[in-house]
Design goal:
This protein has about 160 residues and is mostly helical. Helices cover about 65% and strands about 5% of the residues. A two-stranded antiparallel ribbon has the order 1-2. The chain starts with a helix and ends in a 32-residue tail after the last strand.
Amino acid sequence: MWLFVLFLMVPLIEIALFIQIGGLIGLWPTLGVVIATAFLGTWLVRSQGRLALENLRQSFGALKDPTEPLAHGAMILFSGALLLTPGFFTDAIGFALMVPGIRSLVFHQLQKRVTLASVVSGQAQWSGHDGPQETVIEGEFEVDETPRDGPSAWRRD
């Protein structure tokens, strides 16, 4: 239900803001502001995205948890979509998400509401239950070196 309200309210807020600001400064300056925020938003997404990517690389290099840099990258991507969407309300939210402090605040609020499961060195870390039962299957094998007709993806050439 809240998603329906969101999809209903955002366009209504945008229309109201366009009418108010357009009446205050006129049609062409309003369109100029919308186009300028799209260009500024594109530039900010590129620069902030590079920083987020570098932070992600550093966390991988230091073998630290990459959750926060990944979340920052996702929020930058989302804010870029908001900044490219014509409107003053979406631009305000998009520009707010470009501020690293606000992204950190949003991340910590989301972190309180989301339960994460992670994979470390190929082993799943389970929360809430014992995880899968371990099964060992023993067997023997031998390499078949018999020449075959035609190419095969299963043999060495």
